[in-house]
């Protein structure tokens, strides 16, 4: 980001000294502005990802899904909402819970 900003300053300085009539310099300035904006967006995205990663270290959703939820409830929800079971359970989990997938209907009540 710092490099992109310095390049933008240099391009603006060159455009100012040579005059505003040079279209090549003006397009260079626009490209440098776009590069700075892109770098800022990437930095923001990376900060958000780092925050998410840090916050999610404490959460183990797959453990809860496997050990504490009745698979029949999840399968019934999938069938009721027309969501493929593959979106909820991976292949190993589908093999483990094949009994629940086979026996559960969309109107299952616990």
From TrEMBL:
Question: Which stretches are tagged as biased composition: Basic and acidic residues?
Answer: 1-21
The answer on whether this UniProt entry bears the keyword Nucleotide-binding reads no
Record field: catalytic activity: ATP-independent breakage of single-stranded DNA, followed by passage and rejoining
- Respond yes or no to whether keyword Cell division is given for this record: no
- So where's the catalytic machinery, residue-wise? 68
Residue ranges, annotated region (Disordered): 1-24
Domain Topoisomerase I C-terminal, first and last residues per copy: 40-110
Which keywords belong to this entry? Coiled coil, DNA-binding, Isomerase, Topoisomerase
Pfam families, from UniProt?
Topo_C_assoc
Q: Which residues form a coiled coil?
A: 29-56
Which Gene3D superfamilies does the UniProt entry name for this protein? 1.10.132.10
Domain of life of the source? Eukaryota
Q: Which PANTHER family match?
A: DNA TOPOISOMERASE I (PTHR10290:SF24)
What the record says about family reads: Belongs to the type IB topoisomerase family.
Q: What is this protein called?
A: DNA topoisomerase 1
User: Organism, per UniProt?
Assistant: Xenoophorus captivus
> What gene does this protein come from?
TOP1_2
């Amino acid at each position: 980001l710092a490099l992109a900003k310095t390049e933008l300053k240099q391009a603006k300085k060159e455009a100012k000294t040579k005059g505003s009539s040079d279209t090549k310099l003006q397009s260079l300035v626009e490209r440098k502005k776009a590069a700075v904006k892109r770098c800022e967006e990437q930095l923001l995205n990376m900060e958000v990802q780092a925050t998410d990663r840090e916050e999610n270290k404490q959460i183990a959703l797959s453990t809860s899904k496997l050990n504490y939820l009745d698979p029949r409830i999840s399968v019934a929800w999938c069938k009721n909402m027309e969501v493929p079971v593959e979106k909820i359970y991976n292949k190993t989990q589908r093999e483990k819970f094949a009994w629940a997938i086979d026996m559960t209907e969309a109107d299952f009540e616990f």
